[in-house]
Amino acid sequence: MAAQTPDYAYLTELGQQLRVDAIRCSAAAGSGHPTSSMSAADLMAVLLARHLRYDFGAPELPGNDHLIFSKGHASPLLYAMYKAAGAITDDELLTFRKAGSRLEGHPTPRIPWVDVATGSLGQGLPVGVGIALSGKRLEEAPYRIWVLCGDSELAEGSMWEAFEQAGYSNLDNLIAIIDVNRLGQHGPTRHGWDTAAYARRIGAFDWHIIEIDGHDVVEIDRAYNEALAADGRPTAILARTKKGKGVAAVEDKPGKHGKPLSDPDEAIQELGGRRELHVTVAAPPSFQVAERPVAPPRLPRWDTGEQVATRTAFGAALAALGDARADVVVLDGEVADSTRAEQFAEAHPDRFFECYIAEQQMIAAAVGLQVRGWVPYAATFAAFLSRAYDFIRMAAISQANLRLVGSHAGVSIGQDGPSQMGLEDLAELQAVYGSTVLYPCDANQTAALVVAMADRPGISYLRTTRGETPVLYGPDEEFPIGGSRVIGAGPNDRLSIVAAGVTVAEALHAAEQLAGEGLPARVIDAYSIKPIDEATLRWAARETGHVLTVEDHWPEGGLGDAVLAALASDGQPPRFAKLAVSSMPGSATPAEQLRAAGIDAAGIADAARTLIKP
Amino acid sequence: MAAQTPDYAYLTELGQQLRVDAIRCSAAAGSGHPTSSMSAADLMAVLLARHLRYDFGAPELPGNDHLIFSKGHASPLLYAMYKAAGAITDDELLTFRKAGSRLEGHPTPRIPWVDVATGSLGQGLPVGVGIALSGKRLEEAPYRIWVLCGDSELAEGSMWEAFEQAGYSNLDNLIAIIDVNRLGQHGPTRHGWDTAAYARRIGAFDWHIIEIDGHDVVEIDRAYNEALAADGRPTAILARTKKGKGVAAVEDKPGKHGKPLSDPDEAIQELGGRRELHVTVAAPPSFQVAERPVAPPRLPRWDTGEQVATRTAFGAALAALGDARADVVVLDGEVADSTRAEQFAEAHPDRFFECYIAEQQMIAAAVGLQVRGWVPYAATFAAFLSRAYDFIRMAAISQANLRLVGSHAGVSIGQDGPSQMGLEDLAELQAVYGSTVLYPCDANQTAALVVAMADRPGISYLRTTRGETPVLYGPDEEFPIGGSRVIGAGPNDRLSIVAAGVTVAEALHAAEQLAGEGLPARVIDAYSIKPIDEATLRWAARETGHVLTVEDHWPEGGLGDAVLAALASDGQPPRFAKLAVSSMPGSATPAEQLRAAGIDAAGIADAARTLIKP
Question: What distance, in Å, lies between the first and last C-alpha atoms of chain A?
């Protein structure tokens, strides 16, 4: 509880101030979501003045509570809270949504008190679960996670992944405050003010449920106290509210979503005018994060010529990294035996998070864990990362440092068929802001890249292969991100074959065949697809005049397009051809699949002959 | 009920036969999921022999029930059912997972009795909801939808989107049969055999719940009868089963997922040996689909020079298309006012489906509706299609004909900030097998493309713009998919600027500026990004020698890369530059955003000068 204990009249006044300021900044911006802010103003007033423990002067303090606006469009309310807490000035409040202002339309971590970007609904609570998992399972920390949710976003499946994970994990440090204002963007929600309908559903997932009038500060205060009397369950406070509360022109009216009030001055008058209440927010309890020692890893080593799946190398390297670094955590989507993340789980069960088949929650939990300084690796089949693409997209806006691993890439998985084949993952992950995309071809290279990812900022992605591939490189070789390997370059080369992952060995076989036919070719192992080794590609293209790319991926957005983009602005682009998977695979052996797609050694050699001698 | 009423001993025998055949075909394949099949064998035996109404000789009959294996990995069981029903021979059963066989590792519509591909968990039930919506709301059809679900996939949020939509929509033609075998791939599920935990959860979503022993054919039969006694609610049958049931070496044992039995002969013996029971499956009731008249649409018309948002043109054209075609249906993710799908909703409320903020269910429902012959358009913000990317990926494997519309594309939305900006949607949708990607720049073009999409097979995507753009083309002009428009071409052009959507008008302004500086340039409006107009691009590149692309999208996988790929295999690639969004936007006006990203007229002109006079 706060040092001061403001009385209820004060809390009511504070709620009105938050409404007024939400209206004011939206009016100044000419856009924004004041009505969605007004419904939750009393909820946030009581939280700010009596329950939140947060030092706005020191957001890095590890004992600070976490406050997440899962309904990110209520940003005017959040920013009005910052003003009330003295964290920003009134002048800054009025920069809302203007160019250069950190007070964006939806909150992002450009603001030091915002952990993660929200605005794609249904993500704040799942991320909160990740922060709560850290607090309960890893840190034994005193902080609480307060998540303001909308009622509309309860339609998102990701919310139910979060309810399930939090209930199952007994996250009593997590409090979801659900602003049931009954009106979505386009119209009424399914359940309106029937908070009992939500209570049944969320309660069934083993949450503690409190139903209140979300405009009654006494009820709100009691609800927070009840939630904080932790009983091993997370709490959902279902607060019946009115959208646009307090202003007759918009209160509980449809068609008032996402726009400023038409007469803000009148509305402010109706709310009792401007106020300048200043809230002294309670300080966080003193808490020190336990040290997380980091040492250089002792990686597994493979001899050249061995046959090892890169997914196996990933698992072994990850376990070794976990030995060396106490900050590494791993998340699984119930396929750890396939991805080989299992090896980490066995070595470090305390830092392994089983998210079951809930990829959205898996990524969100990873985002939450990195908020608390952990170094998360999240692994599933490459194909199933597509399930969480919106979360990955938002993680980039959240400035999250996240390591994703997708196994079972491409047709080379063989018999399981197209539903299990990652064939769009390179396109998907390349089109993430600031991302890194890696696709190793052998075990030692994989291990090196797994280590490099740990210190890589942003979203990095490692694509692994199900089947065995030959170990081409020694265990002490280096593979910097942004680099490549040129294999078998000669002065008379007429072709550069650019491959990655499973196609590198195929390309080497093709180069052997071609050499025998008097068509010498070099192979470029483009293990770093983004950033790609532009200098080497240009050099090779100029030397050989012909470039052939080959990838186990759809033709769009993968290795070939990355190579093209790298070569395109060069003055002398080479003759070029791209090999990729261009028809829908069925079931077959890995070798049959590569053959059918034309990306095996024979397919590469054929394409090379066509390209060089047209 | 079936014409014959097989006795319970027969049903038990049939269950054993299904197990034996699942083991046999997996053994022949050397891979597959026999244990996941064995748990559900009794459930499917009773269904096939006593409750399913299906003519395997005439899968097109509109009265046929629908059977979906949401747990698609149990394909050996499905194929064993086909054999028992006489739909395939034993020889064909043993082609399971072999190259060229339609009996793939996970079911796909290459099999005539399979509606949709499954294998990415948590998708079969949401698609079943779509088929059920058609049956109840549009067709008043007698068919029932049986969906075999796994317990592991209950962790997927999409299942809860489906439970919510089905319960709310009173879909009593939908029966989810949940095979609670307590073991996932990597280990035990969260709730094991605690079917009461699932009953509480699913029941809270207003489903009728039946808990049974999934190996007791009497209980199973009673449960199906109870489910069919429709009471306005969908039914979930929670069946406690044992994975690998009937074979001691694998029964209820961990580590036995997704692999053939090590001693299939002994297992078959333990199950009582091979059987050759043949099931006469009940015929479907006679049912005729009501005619859905299709006439040429009378499209709205805009005059050149007007300022109209393409999203507005989309809404108006869609409503007009709905007037002309009774087969068009529209799905919304609770943003119909923003996407303008609202215009269709007002004109045709009976064919409008509000899916609330549940994009996965929205896409799945669209897939289900097209299974029943409807022509669905699903619209949300371009950014939020990323929420359903796995569903879109799978829809392509399902051979679905689906029209997706993404509004609010790019930085040009302005103040709302990056969470609301579709900046990866072109990459995402281009990397879908067989997809079509369209990005109109004006209202009349938009209307024409909306119509063209209706008859386009596969997944087609229309990207629309939030703000107004000038009408450039007359209302009677034609815009074939795969085409482009060349604007202002002259014999002395030194540059081709390739733009689409919001950047076309910017490119035209830039071309004006450049012409004044003695740098004549033409603009290519590449409204069809996939397939792209390769011939025109090559012609323009050769004529002008310089190509500059400009797009409101991340640099990866969008328009620029599509143009590069089209030009790359030409003998004489041009000098090239790509303009795209390369830093993370904040909030600002649309014009400020375009400026900051360097994709407005000034940015284009600058880049053109640099490209031409390096």
Answer: 79
The reply to whether residue A569 touches residue B576, judged by beta carbons under 8 angstroms, is yes
CA distances from B364 to A608, B123, B355, B490 (A): 42, 7, 10, 48
Q: What is the pLDDT of residue B573?
A: 81
Cis check: omega of the bond before B260, within 30 degrees of 0: no
- Residue corresponding to tokens 């075990």: A443
pTM for the model stands at 0.98
Instruction: Count CB atoms within 10 A of the CB of residue B166.
Output: 30
The angle subtended at Cα B55 by Cα B50 and Cα B56, nearest 5°, is 105
CA-CA distance, B178 to B209, in Å (whole number)? 11
What are residue B256's phi and psi, to 5 degrees?
Answer: -115, 15
Choose, out of A153, A189, A205, A390, the residue to mutate when testing the contact with B (most B CBs < 10 Å).
Answer: A390
Q: What is the ipTM of this complex?
A: 0.98
- Kindly tell me if the per-residue pLDDT of B1 is higher than 90: no
Place of tokens 């090999």: A579
Nearest by CB: B161 against A155, A555, A565? A155
Q: Could A201 and B204 be called an inter-chain contact, meaning their C-beta atoms sit closer than 8 Å? A: yes
- At a CB cut-off of 8 Å and minimum separation 6, what does A376 contact? A328, A329, A330, A331, A365, A366, A369, A370, A402, A403
Give the separation between CA A471 and CA A357, rounded to whole angstroms. Answer: 32
| Strand duo B521-525 + B485-487: pairing | antiparallel
Cβ atoms of B20 and B271 closer than 8 Å: yes
Per-residue model confidence as pLDDT tens digits over B302-312: 999 999 999 99
- As given in the structure block, the two tokens for residue A451 are 């280590």
CA dist B122 and B562 (Å) reads: 33
What are the mean pLDDT values of chain A's consecutive 10-residue runs (614 residues total)?
69 98 98 98 98 98 98 98 98 98 98 98 98 98 98 98 98 98 95 98 98 98 95 96 98 96 98 98 97 97 97 98 98 97 98 98 98 98 98 98 98 97 98 98 98 98 98 98 97 97 98 97 98 97 97 98 92 90 98 98 98 82
Residue B28 identity = A
Decide: helix, strand or coil at residue B322.
helix
Q: Where are the alpha helices (DSSP H) in A65-194?
A: 75-84, 90-93, 124-133, 157-168
- Residue B528 neighbours by CB distance under 10 Å: 24
Contact B576 A555 (CB under 8 A): no
Which residues of chain B lie closer than 8 angstroms to A419, CB-CB?
72, 106, 108, 117-120, 394, 397
What is the residue type of A333? G
- B587, B589, B595: best mutation site toward chain A, by most A Cβ within 10 Å? B587
Contact between B25 and B96 under an 8 Å Cβ cutoff? The reply is yes
A201 vs B contacts (CB less than 8 Å)? 201, 204-205
User: Which of A230, A234, A178 is closest to A206 using CA atoms?
Assistant: A234
> Both tokens of residue B35?
């244990």
Which strands form A495-499's sheet, in the order they lie side by side? A485-487, A521-525, A495-499, A546-550, A575-579
Q: Which residues of B are catalytic?
A: 359
SS3 (DSSP) at A347: helix
Residues forming beta bridges with residue B53, ordered by sequence position: B282
Distance of CA A543 to CAs A493, A499, A549, B571, B583, Å?
7, 18, 16, 17, 33
